[in-house]
Amino acid sequence: MTGLVGMATKYAEAVLAVKYREKGPHGMRGGPMYYLAKGANLPRLGWLFAVFTALATFGIGNMTQANAVATIFKSTFNVETWVTGVVLMLMTGLVILGGIKSIGKATSILVPFMIVGYVVGGLVVLALSLDKIPHALGLIFQGAFSPAAAGGGLAGSTIAAAMRFGIARGVFSNESGMGSAPIAAAAARTHDPVKQALVSMTQTFIDTLVVCSMTALVILTGTAWLEKVPAGQLTSVSFGAVLGQSGVILVAIATALFAGSTLIGWNYYGEKAIEYLLGPKSIKPYRVVFVCVVLVGSMMKLEFVWNFSDLMNGMMIIPNTIGLLILSKVVKEETYRYFKWKP
């Protein structure tokens, strides 16, 4: 449900990002801070959004990614978390600080193939567990609406908890409504806001409705989730239960590549937020701090990392949602124009 609603918010964000973007020293720049200031006439809210974005980059775009890679490499290859953190920090630093574009280009090439490989692997697992899929789907609804799911709590609190984690993880996967994606959309080589918005919607569909739903079914058709397997290892153990060691390695490599590309992408979001707040001279110090936090995130406790990320994500969503509501008429007008509909 978060994915379906998120496709609409991702569409609106991209329309506004392209419409209200402006030319900067290194190309086009835009995002919620610009359409809040220029479109909604709320410059202070735009400033707040930039502050929250600069902070959120250390959560969703940094510590959680480093932590995920360190955790899965520890369980799969028995590599110490600090070792993974150092390597990941150096690789990130080479791209961000050293300007080594070859690593960034290699990641951009490998990630699409890895998504295909991950999806194919997941489909194979589900094909071999086809008879268990109906039960898995039933568990999803049972876990969402059954009072017993909250340890005997009231039904209302159970549903609230399910919604809280469902929305949080859904937003984490597709970033819809957060305002991060339109920062990238604003830099796209396009002259039409709606055309870019239609492209941006596909990311939410692929991330949440396809990849995340498939992953959930892979986990629930297995038994690892009943055996108190740590959250960071659930996916790899579930893949490995059907595909053997090759499935575990597939998930580990996919996680590393997905995390690497996310680190680079969120660094870009943070740079644009810092630039908006403090000017171009603040970008280099920000990059140094961002790279150092990679090592910190790889060694921190998973619970703290996720709680920090959820908090910062929520802080980004508040001002961005206000802007989307105020400027909804603009989104409607642009959509009518593109499809030549009559209001």
From TrEMBL:
Membrane topology of the entry: Multi-pass membrane protein
TM helices/strands, residue ranges: 42-61, 81-100, 109-130, 136-162, 205-226, 246-268, 288-306, 312-331
InterPro entries: Na/Ala_symport
Keyword annotations from UniProtKB, A to Z: Cell membrane, Membrane, Symport, Transmembrane, Transmembrane helix, Transport
Subcellular location: Cell membrane
GO cellular component, one term: plasma membrane
Family named by the database record: Belongs to the alanine or glycine:cation symporter (AGCS) (TC 2.A.25) family.
Stated name of the protein: Alanine or glycine:cation symporter, AGCS family
